[in-house]
Amino acid sequence: MTTKEDPAVTCSIVLEFRTTAEAEKVHRSVELDNDGYLETEVDGSTVVARIEAGSLKSLLHTLDDFLVCVSVAEKIVSKED
Q1: Is residue 3 assigned to a domain?
Q2: Predicted model pTM
């Protein structure tokens, strides 16, 4: 992640899915919305997200948005199986 200043707060979250394919589908669904606010990657059946923000409030807002998007994507992906 490229920022002009060092972030005031950082957060990493690991989300585990049933399969690698499910993790990859969820990742593809949410990565377009990252837009420099967070970085995500797939590691086996997990999606790892790293968030950097200038304040705790900003981090919580980004985390909340990300988790809502993941929740919707997970529901869609699980219906495909």
Answers
A1: no
A2: 0.83
